[in-house]
Amino acid sequence: xxxxxTLHDTLKTRYSCxxxxxxxxxxxxxxxxxxxxxxxxxxxxxxxxxxxITKGAATDAFRAMITDLAATGTLPAPDLAWPAGYSGTYAxxxxxxxxxxxxxxxxxxxxxxxxxxxxMRNYALFDAPQVAIxxxxxxxxxxxxxxxxxxxxxxxxxxxxxxxxxxxxxxxAAYAPQVRDHxxxxxxxxxxxxxxxxxxxxxxxxxxxxxxxxxPADIIAWKE
Length: 224
What we know:
Elements: H1 3-13, H2 27-37, E1 50-53, H3 57-71, H4 88-104, H5 112-120, E2 130-137, H6 141-161, E3 165-169, H7 176-183, E4 189-198, H8 216-219
Antiparallel strand pairs: 1-2, 2-4, 3-4
């Protein structure tokens, strides 16, 4: 198998896990994940990403804090503006992914309460035993965030290669000020996203579907 084949298989194997077992990931395994992810490129080799990782009681405390914020209707205050909207193909892909999830766990399209309850699972971190908060310097703005996106991708791929399931979660960044305060992250850092991770509950129906992907023909515009 060539290095390309190995990478391609890992990319195809990775998925967003929405149900985890309670078993913690060993510290040595987490360090191996970060050891691999740190090699991604960044503008001027700034390497702006930093990661704050919880485990044990710290995960439970963070889960309780973020769930309470969402449940009580605390207004979102993300460091980076949310997308202005989803239209055309992007809206269709978003819709399809959502309905795949609802179908997998038996929630009817008209069941608003069921859909809301499933959405709240984001803030319960899908019962993951650990969460990584990705943050970058605010002075680097969207370019630091773009570089950190490469780190998020590499983290999830390295985790997959080591048998660890992940789900990147932008929803957690809705409460960036509270996340910073709770975890002691400096005020000059942008909270970009979370990666909940652990070992997948492979029997849970939420882990039984896979999203579709655009083809190379959909992505490439050749110019000659």
